[in-house]
Design goal:
It comes from Prauserella endophytica. This protein is of the alpha+beta class. The chain is built from 24 helices and 12 strands. It has helices at 4-7, 13-35, 37-40, 54-70, 96-99, 103-109, 111-137, 142-154, 156-161, 174-185, 190-205, 209-229, 231-265, 297-303, 316-328, 333-348, 367-370, 389-404, 410-428, 446-449, 475-482, 511-522, 530-543, 557-568, and strands at residues 46-48, 77-78, 87-88, 353-356, 359-364, 438-440, 462-465, 495-497, 503-505, 545-551, 573-575, 578-582. A 4-stranded mixed β-sheet has the order 7-10-12-11. A two-stranded antiparallel sheet has the order 1-6. α4 (54-70) runs parallel beside α21 (475-482), α8 (142-154) runs antiparallel to α18 (389-404) and α12 (209-229) packs antiparallel against α13 (231-265). The longest helix is centred in the middle third of the chain and has 35 residues, at 231-265. The radius of gyration is 27 Å and the shape is elongated. The model is unreliable at 1-13 (pLDDT under 50).
Length: 589
């Protein structure tokens, strides 16, 4: 008689594989949540400390996009900032590919929830997407795929951007773009895969064009090196790959032609934006980012532009490990192409001249050939170090696979695996992400929170906040969102055209906004001439202003209030936590 145990079917590998997949994906979700745990624990008034003013800006983007969807308005443009000129949202990183589908979340729970969900989901989805592609199409071991995908999504440079730049966090489409290109290179259904490639690229345009450009540059370097290594194989791939790319380009062009026209030729568009020469210091690659377990905030600050632009921090243990992996796998054509792409993108990110620990050298970099090209001229060169992340992750996955597949005696194989995973722990644990810091937001002034503003703003009129909102202080955008977009704001935080047509951050300043900025910086209220008063009236008419407001708790509030009193020949009134000047008589409707 058979035992009952014999009737129980044995667990087969596919089932075990699915359990492993679920465990890996769950780990990614948990890791992403832990990074943003402080924000999730305080969605009502939490603010990512290192985002500076970007959280205000992104929440505004999500909120104004949701409003456009509900009111069936053009989501590519808004005049709620920079009134009356408005803002070209396609020329900003508004991420319509997230803001539009998450409109129900924004409407029901507010833009802070959308912000937190976008960032958290972006990390987890990017890791999951790379795991899926790597485990099914690149390596044969789930362990290798899991390690490589985790690095692609949670690398220090990605976590740095995770403070403020969701367009560099929500990267889950890039693995599938790479997959379509791999399928085309293998000759698989060029038309079908070309169409899918075009659809993926189209959606990525609405998530982030800059990451797409960096990824395309990385893939181009990989393709060139691989073709030089395997010319006959590359020639065989060229026809289906070229056909599929042409099909994809046609699909993408048909779908994004109008949005891109709007971006580059529509209202409040600009041709390019110049950032100056801001390459990575070579010493940053061997240092640890602020949000890493071994992070050194003081060193990171010296070697990067700011907390959200720590683009090059791999840590010296990982640099050593990747160098060793490159040497060990150099005979493998794909690994060689990945390694060259990794080092090339790192080199590009260093700018026109190599700088080592703050000391410039005379060694030129490839950025000298790229910085003036269309599209490249608008990108921070230091961000090209992000292009080194994915090749590094895939190399780690490939090396893990080879170690696990080594055909050695049991003792030697066991020792090799212990040694490899020990080296991985030594390289990756120090750069593991820590949770991002969050602080309490200042409460919204009652003037906006309880609707008092309605007594001062008529249809067609705007609100002028003193000093006017810009890249350094965009809190007024948060107040506007809380007030339900009941009024437009003069100036703001966005990217728009300057007087010469190039892009600039914030509005082109009017004389009064420049004066108020100077007072905010110095704390000195100047004497105002009759010409100054006339200019103030002219600027208020330009903004179609109904009311001027100054937060009572603002820095240099006394000097700013005195200045506005003098400009308007009118004493401020205290209303709802604000100093208020009713200027409807100055700008009659």
């Amino acid at each position: 008689m058979r035992s009952p145990a014999a009737e129980v079917p044995r667990v087969r590998w596919p089932y075990r594989g699915r359990i492993a997949d679920i465990a890996v994906l769950s780990a990614y979700v948990l890791a992403a949540f832990l990074v943003y745990r402080p924000l999730w624990m305080n969605l009502g008034s939490g603010y990512l400390s290192s985002s500076v003013q970007d959280q205000n800006m992104w929440e505004w983007f999500f909120a104004v996009t949701a409003r456009s969807v509900l009111h069936l308005e053009n989501p590519l443009f808004s005049d709620f900032q920079n009134y009356p000129l408005g803002v070209n949202l396609m020329a900003n990183t508004a991420m319509l590919g997230v803001g539009i589908p998450l409109t129900p979340v924004t409407v029901l729970f507010g833009p802070t929830t959308t912000w937190a969900l976008t960032l958290t989901g972006g990390l987890a989805a990017t890791a999951g997407a790379w795991y899926w592609v790597l485990s099914r199409h690149v390596v044969d071991t789930r362990a290798g795929a899991a390690i490589g995908a985790a690095f692609c999504a949670f690398a220090p440079s990605i976590i740095s951007h995770a403070n403020a730049h969701p367009n560099f966090v929500v990267l889950f489409l890039l693995p599938f773009i790479v997959l379509r290109l791999l399928k085309l290179a293998r000759g698989e259904r060029p038309v079908r895969n070309g169409v899918l490639l075009g659809l993926l690229v189209t959606y990525q345009v609405f998530l982030g064009e800059e990451p797409l450009l960096i990824a395309a540059t990385t893939m181009a370097v990989f393709a060139i090196v691989y073709a030089l290594s395997r010319p006959e194989e590359a020639l065989a791939m060229a026809r289906p790959l070229g056909a599929g790319i042409l099909v994809g380009a046609g699909v993408t062009f048909a779908l994004v032609a109008f949005p891109l026209w709007w971006q580059f030729a529509g209202p409040q568009s600009y041709g390019s934006i110049e950032h100056g020469l801001l390459g990575n210091d070579a010493a940053a690659f061997t240092s640890f980012a602020t949000e890493s377990l071994a992070g050194d905030a003081e060193t990171a600050e010296k070697l990067s532009l700011n907390r959200t632009e720590e683009n090059a921090f791999f840590g010296w243990p990982l640099v050593l490990l990747l160098t060793a992996v490159t040497i060990a796998l150099w005979r493998v054509a794909a690994a060689r192409a990945l390694a060259v792409a990794m080092f090339a993108l790192a080199w590009i990110s260093m700018g026109v001249l190599l700088v080592v620990d703050g000391e410039p050298t005379s060694i030129p970099g490839p950025w000298m050939l790229l910085f003036d090209l269309p599209l490249y001229e608008s990108v921070l060169e230091s961000r090209f170090a992000l292009g080194a992340v994915v090749p590094a992750g895939i190399l780690l996955a490939m090396a893990t696979e080879r170690v696990l597949r080594l055909n050695l005696a049991p003792d030697w194989g066991h020792a090799a695996r212990i040694g490899w995973f020990g080296a991985l722990a030594f390289a990756l644990v120090p750069i593991a992400p820590t949770e991002l810091r969050v602080h309490e937001r200042d409460p919204v002034p009652q003037f906006f929170a309880d609707g008092t503003w309605r007594q001062y703003v008529e249809p067609g009129g705007s609100v002028v906040v003193v000093p006017l909102p810009d890249t350094g202080d965009a809190e007024a955008l948060h107040w506007q969102v809380k007030a339900g977009f009941g009024f437009p704001l003069a100036e703001g935080y966005f990217v728009g055209p300057s007087a010469d047509g190039r892009g600039t951050y914030g509005a082109v300043r009017r004389p009064v906004s420049e004066l108020l900025e100077q007072v905010a910086d110095t704390g000195v209220a100047p004497a105002i001439s009759p010409a100054g008063k006339r200019q103030a009236a002219a600027d208020l008419r330009y903004w179609e202003a109904d009311v001027v407001v100054l937060p009572m708790a603002a820095d240099q509030a006394d000097a700013l209030r005195t200045t506005v009193d003098r400009l308007l020949d009118q004493d401020a009134r205290p209303v709802g936590g604000m100093w208020v000047w009713d200027v409807r008589a100055v700008t009659p409707g």
